[in-house]
Target: Urea ABC transporter ATP-binding protein UrtD
Amino acid sequence: MSTLLEMSGVSVSFDGFRAINNLSFQIGEPELRAIIGPNGAGKTTFMDIITGKTKPDEGRILYGDKGISLLGLSESRIAREGIGRKFQKPTVFEAQSVRENLAMALKNPRGPFDVLLYRKTRAGAARIEEIAARIGLSEALTRPAGELSHGQKQWLEIGMLLAQEPRLLLVDEPAAGMTPAEREKTTEMLVDLGRDHAVIVVEHDMEFVRRLNCKVTVLNEGSVLAEGSIDHVTGDPQVIEVYLGR
Ligand code: ADP
Model:
């Protein structure tokens, strides 16, 4: 596992309030990582910094094999470099089929040309099938996305992210609002994606995080409070105090 993204000494203030405070963080490729922390810990701001939505006041962020700095890059350029984000609320095209939704998101591996044609090539069609299999929607390819369950819509959106061929995926509360069976499938899906991508999952549900069975980073007051296995971090007295002591 090599390092894909390395953040060091990153700080961000909003009107003098330090939402992110001298934060250092690394993720490898491949790796699945869970980020937890109480409300206001800085989790959303952390993801906004990685995707370029929020620019830090201090620090550095290096990404990829050549260690390019993300600080000077626009959000769209960062996305093109292979960083994809899935927000909590699914935003699929309800009237279009699952296949069409995936086709619309598909990136042509040969560059930004002929993407409309690429969808129709054998390679493009095969890529759509491959993604559908990974998100458990092979049987639903012809169904309108509007007919899918909440959980299936979330998976479709993960599929649309995968169609962009990301290296790093940021996933915000993937299990929120899901049935127990959907949560179980989501766990398996994230573990599977973590085998060949860097995946950062922000999640409140500790039981869900436990099942991901991965390294956990605990944020508090804009800094890393603890890092390690779920058993390690949940046994850390500082983490217990932050979660229970208020
Ligand atoms: P989390 O996602 O862990 O709940 P956030 O990253 O949303 O935490 O917020 C961290 C802190 O920064 C909070 O105290 C929040 O109120 C503050 N904050 C976040 N975004 C802004 C903003 N745009 N303007 C002012 N304060 C903000």
Summary: Residues 175 and 183 are 6 Å apart (CA to CA). Residues 2-89+167-244 form a domain with the Rossmann fold fold (CATH 3.40.50.300). The first strand starts at residue 2 and ends at 14.
